[in-house]
Write a structure and sequence with these properties.
The chain has 211 residues and is mostly helical. The protein is 97% helix and 0% strand.
Length: 211
């Protein structure tokens, strides 16, 4: 794995043990960065999900409270209407007798039917609102899951791009090191040639003087 990860010139320059330590350090840095990014994204999306669920719960409690208030008001209105009708019917009964008793019975039946119809309508409205809220919660969960999947894919792409950039930077560094080493070798050979040329010229001069 190390032979494919680092160029041979870098391994020769740094040595086997140093090259292994350098590669392990790069790999550890990458793993730590991945863990930090995944943990940050998980916490952020967990907070967003909790916030959205809290909003849905608050709206659901508000809707239920409103329905309960409407039912309470309707009961009060029905009771007041029944009380008014009862007082009126008592007066009519006392004055008109059996005909008014029959009319009172008919009105009571109508009121009962109206109350039953209103209860049925309220139950249907509550059931419809509950179904709508459940569907909205399901849709929000699906959207959040899709968003989390997209974010994970984007993070993986970013990590892959950064890994490629890091490899390219290492390759560029290796090429620059090779060029610097080649230039250094040429300078050393040039100075060595000039040094030995000067030594030869000095020796030749000394020999000519000794003769």
């Amino acid at each position: 794995m190390l032979d494919n990860a680092l160029p041979s010139s870098v391994r020769q320059r740094m040595g086997g043990e140093a090259s292994l330590d350098f590669w392990l350090w790069i790999d550890a840095c990458g793993e730590g960065w991945k863990a930090d990014v995944l943990e940050s994204c998980t916490l952020r999306f967990g907070a967003m999900l909790a916030e959205e669920l809290g909003k849905v719960r608050v709206e659901l409690h508000q809707e239920i409270g409103g329905v309960k208030q409407e039912i309470s008001e309707l009961r009060g209105d029905v009771k007041q209407a029944i009380a008014a009708q009862g007082a009126a019917l008592c007066h009519v009964i006392t004055s008109q007798g059996a005909a008014l008793r029959q009319e009172m019975t008919n009105q009571r039946v109508e009121l009962r039917e109206e109350m039953i119809n209103q209860r049925v309508e309220l139950r249907e409205a509550i059931a419809g609102q509950g179904v709508a809220l459940r569907q909205e919660m399901i849709n929000q969960r699906v959207e959040l899951r899709e968003e989390m999947i997209n974010q994970r894919a984007e993070l993986r792409e970013d990590m892959a791009g950064q890994g490629g950039a890091l490899r390219q930077e290492i390759a560029t560094l290796g090429a620059s090191l090779r060029r610097e080493m080649a230039a250094t070798r040429v300078d050393v050979v040039r100075w060595a040639f000039l040094f030995w040329l000067g030594q030869v010229a000095t020796m030749a001069g000394l020999l000519s003087l000794m003769r």
